[in-house]
Amino acid sequence: MKNKKVKMFFLFSFLSLLIFLSLFLGVDGFSFDKTIVLKVRLPRVILGFLSGGSLAYAGAVLQGLLENPLCDPYILGIASGAAFGVCLGYLTKKLSYFFSPLFAFLGSFIAIFLVYNLAFYKGKTNKIALILAGVIISFLFSSLTMLFMVFSKRPLNEIIYLIMGNLAFVFNKFTLTIFVIMNFISIIFLIIIYSKAFELNCLSLGTEVAESLGVNYQQSIRLLFFLTSFLVAIQVAFAGAISFVGLIIPHLTRFIFGANYKTVLPLSFILGAIVVIIADLIARTIAPIELPISMVTTFFGAPFFLYLLRRNL
Amino acid sequence: MKKFLLFILFLLLCNQPSKEKKIRVVSLSPAVTEIIFALNCEEYLVGNTIYCDYPEKAKEIYKVGDLINPSLEKIIKLKPTLVFLTYPLQKNIDEKLKALNIKTFNSSPKSLNEMFQEIIKIGEIFNKKERAEKLVDSLREELNKIKKLKKKLKVYIEINANPPITIGKNSFLNDLLEFIGLENIFADKLTDYPVVKHEEIILKNPDYIILFHPTSKVDDVSSRFGYEKIEAVKYHKIVNNLNPDYFLRNSPRVIEGIKMLRNILRDEE
Predict the structure, then answer these.
(1) Could you identify which of A42, A52, A187, B59 might form a hypothetical disulfide with A272, taking C-beta atoms 3.0 to 4.6 angstroms apart as the criterion?
(2) A168: which chain B residues are within 8 Å (Cβ-Cβ)?
(3) Membrane-spanning residues where (chain A) (predicted)?
């Protein structure tokens, strides 16, 4: 127990150090320009913190809920839905790009709605139905996005970067308002999910075990599906589909802190936030051109995770 | 007598197809399509892409596909004697066409001067060198009429808003800017279309911002957090009414583009 507290203390101090570094480190070393630090880097760090954290959090929930170690937050078709939503936004030619988070969210919402209707047919469902529905909707929306990409005569950098993940979002008053509202909702969702940690512990042991322990399986799967989907949809709308974090961080957390969801959930959040902030720091300082953040998370994350896996086997 | 006349007519018709007529070209580059039309050689153009939309008549020519993935079958079916394409975008297609024994011509000028040379080369292909030289002379004359800026103004070109993408040193547009006397704030980037950071834009503090993404309003840029520090935003020097096709395609139209841009900067020294 004491060991755990030391680890946690280490984690939090590392996070604060990292936030400090991200705020003041730019492409040409340290800089303290007030406008840049407060208006460009601070939103970026906050975006990285919330999206990284939420993605890891959602990944942890889905892996337990669906009893599948390969689940990541995008398995339910949310990222593909978001990309499709941005395509829809392009069709309404007059709107400015500040509306694209709204369209991304709309796309995700359509995806969630369709998955729900596919998976919860006649009111009951099982895990496999949910995963399959998610994967199928994901493919469907990817194909629609590709169709759009082929036929559109506009450069589609925004969609490509949405699929790759991108924290370079710049806010104005309008987007900031939406961002604050949406994240306020997502924090409420985070808390509700946390209150379901006991159910998640039971569900990760299998449906029968959970039901014998008094968990209402049908109700829990429905509630958790909705909460995590919206959590992810909100993050993807602003930061795009940052890969790897939602898949690996929950495993990493379990390696270090054990499999109890009461600790896995909050610590996944912190670890996810740390990893995305580091990745963003690398992505925007290491090369003269900004790298896609998913490339950084995967390139540096995969070997590190393999090393951990080797040591623990 | 009638029969004899018809026979003469028949002979005349038979002799009509001269050597020139055998040229059949496909253009996979909208810029080359524009050059071909400017040289009045469109009769030899048998295929182009869905992006070839200028002049209006270019739209009527048989479409072989888009820029990245045109249909090889359609190109082969047209039996072209030459296919125009651009590097690096269409390097793959070039290799495929060469493997199919179809001749290609790579046209990727990086500056105004290279573009003029390119026009003459394309003229030579159609045996219209004189016409091409005449066109280049008139374009150069038009260019020389344009007054350059005395004071260097810093300019930020935005091709895409989220993430911000601009133009680097090696792009054609960079040369145009230098011609007028504008300084591209990202001329230190070596790639053609680099992704840049908002903090770099704020730090480099451009005097002018030119938006080349359609649908964008001036307000979309000036309302961004942190941008209020930029000179261009302070003095409302954000330009969003220029058609990107006039600047991003290396065709004779750029001269018009430069004129339009100079007209916007008319109050500057």
Answers:
(1) A52
(2) 162-164, 195, 197-198
(3) 45-66, 73-91, 97-116, 128-151, 171-194, 223-252, 264-282, 289-309
